[in-house]
Amino acid sequence: MNMTKRAICLLLVFSITAAAQFAGAQEYEPSIGQEGKDVVWVPTPEFLVEAMLDMAKISPKDYLVDLGSGDGRIVIAAAKRGVPAVGIEYNADMVALSRRNADKAGVSNKASFVNGDLFESDFSKATVITMYLLPHLNLSLRPIILDLKPGTRVVSHAFTMGEWAPDQTVEMEGRTAYLWIVPAKVEGVWTWLIDSGKAELKLTQNFQSLKGTLKVNGKERPIKDAKLEGDEIRFATGEAEYIGRVNGKVAEGIIKANGIERKWLATLRLKS
Fold first, then answer.
1. Edge-to-edge order in the sheet of strand 111-115
2. What is the pLDDT of residue 21?
3. Is the dihedral of CA 69, 71, 73, 75 positive or negative?
């Protein structure tokens, strides 16, 4: 009887061990080029992953969201730098694989993964967005991205945002990555208050590029060297340089001219 029980126990142990080994052998392994919902899976090389994170100048104060996170390598690389990061991925098997990879890398406390559709997901809290999608998906996501907080950094492997010119481009070993910084929305007519009185700034905007005129004391002149970088606005007129930050419909900053700095404050009055 004791021998029978011992045999049964040994058989159970063997069965459990074999089952575990079989389950391990059956772990999901993705294949390059496999079809997804809107794309095929082709992983971003590790060297470019690091370059993309460098372009975005990520820090532990950031919150990174990877759109179409695949096997989780970008999220995990960000987490290794101390950055809280989340990947959004439609393929549930890839999500499970990513979680295993994050656990193996020891960054499960910083890296998380969501099984979902990009166009039904809320990534509005991201300060950095990474992606390796197709051009038509980039263009479909562009209006959503442009509504994110000014200063949000967006890095794409291989594909652009159409006529929205990148702020930076990096090429490495035949691969290309692009960086955009979400610009504030400044188009319209701004009423300015400066120490010499009132002024009026008229702006037209094409993403981060600006054109316009500044009227001071009844004299109107075109602005030059105008650009937005997130919520920071810069332009010049004559010998004066204007630098400021935009917060919704209010902007403020300084004027540098002839070695003297003066403050300015402006409010957006109407759309042009």
1. 111-115, 85-89, 64-67, 128-131, 153-157, 175-181, 168-172
2. 45
3. positive
